[in-house]
Amino acid sequence: MTSIETVVIGAGHAGLAVSRLLTDAGREHLVLERGRVAERWRTQRWDSLRLLTPNWMTRLPGQRYEGRDPDGFMQAAAFVERLERYAVSFTAPVLANTTVLDVRAASSGGYQVSTEHGGWHAKNVVVATGPHGVPRWPAGLDARDAITVDRYRNPRQLAPGGVLVVGASASGAQIADELTRAGREVVLAVGRHTRLPRVYRGLDIFRWLERTGKLARTIDDVVDPVAARREPSAQLVGRLARFDATGCDIDGVDLAALQSRGVRLVGRFEGMSGGRARFRTDLVETVNMAQHAMNKVLDAIDEHIEATGLTGHVPPARRPPSLRVPPSVEALDLGSAQIGAVLVATGFRPDYPWLRLPITDRTGTIQQRRGVTPAPGVYVVGQRFQHRRDSGFIDGARHDALAVVRHMTAHCPPRADDAQGEEPAA
Q: Residue 260 in 3-state DSSP?
């Protein structure tokens, strides 16, 4: 078994961010990837997907967006190419097509990492496989009756007829939009969701979230860290906003915009039997909660604008219109409604079957603080709200990667024969 200082598991943006910083620090390491660089972006995303964040937010250690369209939204395929170039730019030591089978403590200290192509003895292990493990299945829905969002590619893939989309966060809302634009009848089962406008007072919402410090807010600042880490992704889509006379973004994917395009809204999915889907009668409450949370964010932006003297330099405040909540529907016969397919977009749960270390909680989530786990020398990067609000975004991984590498190098000084590098820079 080969000895190495650090093994990084996963060659997505988070794993490559760690690798770049380790390379800059002159630290010996290897990146193990089950497929190719950015494999999940290649094989578990739908065809039309664009990043939710503007191009200017595709910042990684040593790399910033310098193209002609900073406010545009990169296609997933273009982002894959960008990560490939990034890996090449610093000769990232990626070992592709190497599936990790087992990570456990070694009797001699450190960790044993076993793969289908051999094993390594490492002082440090960084888990950078991202927050997406396996899809969450709604209770009462048989896996044979539906397709999950990670297997969806385009409307032609689904059986003819209407589509029941379960889940109304970013993925569910975007796919519901794509399906209805393709001429499909869509029923959207709405659970907890986050509503934000794509553009507010002349700027993309992420410009305001960064300017007001909301993206830099840490987990230590929130009252309920568990709830914060489970906050649904915003109902946004990677395209520029266009407004009608009522102030509705006609290219948006919030519930009001989807409803205006003919998407039928129902409450949270409760289960299905005998071809009948059941829903909670909670849509009014769910919508009101999302509206209230959105208004709090927009209030903070308005206060920032006034406090910084920007009032005369940006358009007046205009809030997205409220949703006309339809009457409650408790059940729907899929046959009678001519629903030919069910698509599940209810998120993912952690899944680390190869991790033989006592560092996960009862939900399977890796326990950590700023990426440092209870197992000395084992780290994690790329989790949702890992430390900052933006940890789950591409842009936020650089901060968590830097914290992990600094901790690692402070607690694991280089050997005399190791190359000496400068302190990692964000």
A: helix
Q: How far is CA 260 from the centre of its chain?
A: 27
Alpha-carbon distance of 370 to 236, in angstroms, equals 28
- Helix (H) or strand (E) holding 95, with range, is strand 94-95
CB 320 within 8 A of CB 145: no
Mapping DSSP to helix (H, G, I), strand (E, B) and coil, where does residue 394 land? coil
Encode 270-331 in three state secondary structure: EEEECCEEEECCCHHHHHHHHHHHHHHHHHHHHHHHHHCCCHHHCCCCCCCCCCCCCCCCCE
Structure tokens at 190: 């709405």
d(CA 53, CA 170): 12
Q: What's 257's DSSP letter?
A: H
- Residues 309, 164 contacting (CB under 8 angstroms): no
**pLDDT tens readout for residues 367-394:** 999 999 999 999 999 999 999 999 999 9
Is residue 325 within 8 A of residue 286, CB to CB? The reply is no
Distance CA 254, CA 257 (A): 5
Q: What is the pLDDT of residues 232-274, one digit of tens each?
A: 999 999 999 998 888 889 899 999 999 999 999 999 999 998 8
Q: What does DSSP assign to residue 77?
A: H
